[in-house]
Amino acid sequence: MGAVRARSSNSAFKISIMRRRLLENQIRVFLVFATLTATALRFLLNEKGRTNPDSIRFMRSANVFPVIDNTVTPLGYPLSLKFFTLFGFDEFWASKILGIMAYLVLVWFAWKKKFYFKEIILTGGLFSFVSIFSYTMSEALILPFVFVFLFVGRQIIIDQLKGLRAFVLLSLALIILYNIRYPALFLIGGVLLFGLINFRKHYGKIFITSAFTALVYVVLYKFLFIDYFNEKYIDTFLEIGLHPTSQLLTELFQGLTTTFNPFVHIADPGGGLINYAIYGIGLFNILLIVYLFVQQKLSETEFFLVFMGVFGILCSFFIQYFYSVNAIDYRLMAPFSLPIWLVYFKKMYRILGKFTYGLTILSLLTGLIFTWLSRGNYLENRKVITTFLRAEKLDKVPLKFYVESEEELDKFKIAELISTVNPRVNITFKPADTLRKNTLTAYRVLRKIKIDKNQFQ
User: Fold this and answer.
1) Residue 153, Cβ density class (10 Å: 0-12 exposed, 13-18 middle, ≥19 buried)
2) Residues 6 or more apart from 358 whose CB is under 8 A from it?
3) Domain residue ranges in the chain
């Protein structure tokens, strides 16, 4: 009888485990579909399809390639857009397909390699990352390559990758990252420093030599590509003392507390009490991250991930002293916050188990509510602007859009919307250009059409 009861108890235990695993798999599948849905809604319920002034340049660069019209950003993202246009999509829809594929590649790679699988689902479903995957920006493309880079680094650390193969793969990962976004230079520096710190370990020399190889590529890229097409690039963007430390520290606090706020990643530009809540939740989460990383000792791989994230954030802060870049925010920090989120969710899962998924579910719900309340109608606006451009015979010709200054954000939005239909748009600040037939102004557009605007964005 005792043996029968033991077998019965063991069988019930196995069934219980199987049910829990089935439930967790169902939650993961739900989160993947919910993330994809939220990503699509994020750009469809936006007045200009989740674009910004940089998106104009990306889509134009993709459209005019092989002509090189700027070197402000690497060619990786524009060429990726160009690739998808070969299948009949325009540059705008190519960017949205690319964003969705970037998320799916992250999930697939994590599942295939058994590398932070549940953590990538938890992180990718955060509303801040949904916003990135829905954006026409290069951060969406770089995230899966950052994840692969982290995996390669981990394989080298645990001695699964060795010798020449390890050197080639890590060097190649760093070079690819740099060809998507220049801030990948911080990851190269992080790999070099990590190698120096661990010089006596078996992987130290591999990290150092790979970083030096990538740095050689960066130097060659500067002289053979950037200087060839824009010899004044460094003089234009390099300037000492751009911003006072007090301003940069304030922006750092605001940027990090929104980056690591799991629910709201954009503060109200008008200020108010709501921002205290946004910054407060972000600050509490940062303190919780620090506590968990100290309380639960980091493994060698976890330390590598956190080290790369923190080093990238610090470099992003100090570069602002002499290089003209946007203030730190969730989007710019995405390649560096990703590894920190992964380790954080891994630690959190050890404490909360399946309840950890609730954080991502709440983040998605918050994002969907925000998206719905602030909704515009991109498809309707696209239809209206397409009709306008065709009527003016400006849908397939190079365009200029005049604004008086970079602070006129409402006028920029019109240019961004136009670029989703005709990507050959250049921004001009010269009043004389308005005399040309192919130069549009906000007044010229809005006197003939009405654009459905987002309420809170």
Assistant:
1) buried
2) none
3) 90-373
Give the whole-angstrom CA distance, residue 94 versus residue 446: 27
Render pLDDT for 371-411 as a digit per residue (tens, 0 to 9).
998 888 999 999 999 999 999 999 889 999 998 887 777 88
pLDDT at 2 over 90: no
Using alpha carbons, select from 265, 260, 266 the residue that is nearest to residue 341: 260
Nearest to 308 by CA among 177, 216, 165: 177
- Tens of pLDDT, residue by residue over 295-353, are 999 999 999 999 999 999 999 999 988 877 888 999 999 999 999 999 999 999 999 99
Task: State the Cα–Cα distance between residues 57 and 54, nearest whole angstrom.
Answer: 5
Residues 412-439: what's their mean pLDDT?
A: 90
Residue 1: pLDDT over 70: no
pLDDT of residue 349: 95
Burial class (CB in 10 A: 0-12, 13-18, 19+), 288: middle
HEC assignment per residue over the chain = CHHHHHHHHHHHHHHHHHHHHHHHHHHHHHHHHHHHHHHHHHHHCCCCCCCCHHHHHHHHHHHHCCCCCCCCCCCHHHHHHHHHHCCCCCHHHHHHHHHHHHHHHHHHHHHHHCCCHHHHHHHHCCHHHHHHHCCCCCHHHHHHHHHHHHHHHHHHHCCCCCHHHHHHHHHHHHHHHHCCCCCHHHHHHHHHHHHHHCCCCCCHHHHHHHHHHHHHHHHHHHHHHHHHHCCCHHHHHECCCCCCHHHHHHHHHHHHHHHCCCCCCCCCCCCCHHHHHHHHHHHHHHHHHHHHHHHCCCCHHHHHHHHHHHHHHHHHHHHHHCECCCCCCHHHHHHHHHHHHHHHHHHHHHHHHHHHHHHHHHHHHHHHHHHHHCCCCHHHHHHHHHHHHHHCCCCCCCEEEECCCCCCHHHHHHHHHHHCCCCCEEEECCHHHHHCCCEECHHHHHCCCCCCCCCCC
pTM equals 0.92
Is residue 142 within 8 A of residue 99, CB to CB? The reply is no
Contact between 185 and 172 under an 8 Å Cβ cutoff? The reply is no
